[in-house]
Design a protein that fits this description.
By secondary structure, the chain is mainly α. Helices cover 42% and strands 10% of the residues. The longest helix is centred in the middle third of the chain and has 16 residues, at 36-51. It starts with 17 loop residues before the first strand and ends in a 16-residue tail after the last helix.
């Protein structure tokens, strides 16, 4: 599983068919002030994904979260993302959310009574 740049499991990248980037990854990718270990990990992830020709998906809610704060650079950022041959912006609807949840394989130990939608 690929985690955020602060804790990337890069050894798993070579076994991945696809990776999903959330808004935090996009923000870091375009942050020119990002430096140090976090920048090094992110650069390593991107290089590894490119070398392995791994598909990268950006769900539309993550894209929206990223672009809402992009200001005047919004169009340039979107163009930069769309110009990447292995990066695809994908819709993320209820079906996609269910598929993502099923693939994660991380169930709760037991239902949380406080999270029940029927609780008054």
């Amino acid at each position: 599983m690929i985690r955020s740049p602060s804790g990337i499991a890069s050894e798993a990248v070579s076994d991945c068919m696809a990776v999903l980037f959330d808004a935090s990854v996009l923000i870091d990718l375009f942050n020119k002030r990002l430096a140090g270990e976090r920048r090094a990990k992110l650069d390593h992830l991107v290089a590894t994904l490119q070398k392995s020709r791994t598909d990268v998906f950006v769900p539309t809610p993550a894209l929206a979260e990223f672009l809402v704060r992009a200001g005047k650079a919004r169009d340039a950022y979107l163009q930069a993302l769309e110009s990447q041959p292995r990066l695809r912006i994908e819709p993320f609807d209820k079906r996609a959310a269910l598929e993502c949840a099923l693939q994660s394989g991380l169930p709760f130990d037991k239902p949380d009574d406080d999270a029940s939608p029927n609780k008054n």
